[in-house]
Amino acid sequence: MSDPNRPPPPSTDNKNLLLSPTSSRSVTETVNGSHKFVIQGYSLAKGMGIGKHIASDNFTVGGYQWAIYFYPDGKNPEDTSTYVSVFIALASEGTDVRALFELTLMDQSGKGKHKVHSHFDRSLESGPYTLKYRGSMWGYKRFYRRAMLESSDYLKDDCLKINCTVGVVVSAIDCSRLPSIQVPDSDIGVHFGTLLENMDGSDISFNVSGVIFHAHKLVLAARSPVFCSDFFDGSEGINQEIIVTNMEPKVFQAMLHFIYRDTLVEDELVASSSSSSPSEFDSLTAKLLAAADQYDLGRLRRMCESCLCKEISVNSVAKTLALADRYHAAELKAVCLRFAAENLAAVMRSDGFEYLKENCPSLQSEILKTVAGCEEDCSSGGGKSRSVWAQLSDGGDTNGRRVRQRT
Fold first, then answer.
1. What is the mean pLDDT of residues 305-316?
2. Is there a domain that residue 331 lies in?
3. pTM recorded for the entire structure
4. Residue 130, CA distances (Å) to 98, 142, 166, 300 in order
5. What's CA 128's distance to the chain center, in Å?
6. Can you tell me which family this protein belongs to (predicted)?
């Protein structure tokens, strides 16, 4: 006799569903990245003291920041500066970060006899190294005997090169997934650029020093509030040809290229920045910045600021600052003020600083205010940056290249 409380047996359909297999796979692998650390002026770094290090810039691997620490006098007091020490440090927040490491002292003779300390080839023996928290390190207190290092091919022209590879261990569950369809990158800029090149449907033209450019009111108005106001503010009709008197044809063409394609004319910008131009104001990028300001093209302004920022040097920073101030390039202006404050002595000896004296005295005052801010940051931050006033006492850097004072 059947039990009335017993659940009914599964149907045939349910059996089939239960028998359908599922699967998943755990995948543990390393996300690898490398950083080359060049230590120029090794002989000057010696004697800084046991336990004191020179740090590389932070670099990112596997979602964490890392830094290389080089101890020219060693990290271990017991070794009395017999060895140099090298460590890799976790420079960002993290807990129990597991990773593999490799430190390579580069042979600079061309023979390829590099000194390699690798954790990768020992991973089966001991597994990945676990860094518990920010500041945890892996490396070697006795990386290389200092006397041997100084007579080796690893040291050339008072320079050492250390290559670091970090492999951050990550685990993920790989489940069966439906096929994916790749969506191509946006090509709207290509289509609008073709519209500009073919002049199809153009309804406005610009006469720039005798060169005629055809364009489309709706496109220009959508990109520039100034053009929008000119074309559609309700005033009397706009002439079909507008004469532009304050811009060169190549600058206007580059501006139209941006408006339609949302990119810069890279080749012309590179040629302009690499030419021996008599003034920072004469480069195509600088003139394009002026055009961006005139027509309120915010993204173009920022792109020009980014290009000009890469060319800042002791000799150019003052005039670049004046340029940024004139055309309301706030980001570029802030970078220039900071750079000038941190390299004050050298900048004061440049021709550009004389230009500020004669043409933009208010900017000199802003530089001094920034100097005061740098001094305050230096004192509150434990002396990380070198005092700008100390630069004035020892003459600063006068070689005219991009510099930043550090200790």
1. 90
2. yes
3. 0.54
4. 4, 21, 13, 46
5. 30
6. Belongs to the Tdpoz family.
Give me the mean pLDDT over the 261-278 stretch: 66
**pLDDT tens figures, 27-63:** 888 899 999 999 999 999 999 999 999 999 999 999 9
In the listed set 117, 149, 171, which residue is the last one of a domain according to the structure? 171
Number of domains observed in the structure of the chain: 2
**Contact criterion met (CB below 8 Å) for 354 and 315:** no
User: What is the domain extent for residue 55?
Assistant: 27-171
- Pairwise CA distance, residues 331 & 62, whole Å: 30
Q: What is the C-alpha radius of gyration for the chain, rounded to an integer number of angstroms?
A: 31
Cα distance between residue 128 and residue 261, in whole Å: 48
Last residue of a domain, one of 109, 139, 171: 171
- Rounded mean pLDDT, 332-356: 89
The answer to whether residue 258 sits within a structural domain is: no
CATH classification of the domain holding 116:
2.60.210.10
**Quick check: is 320 in a domain?**
yes
Contact between residue 88 and residue 75 where contact means Cβ atoms under 8 Å apart: no
Distance from C-alpha of 349 to C-alpha of 2, rounded to nearest angstrom: 104
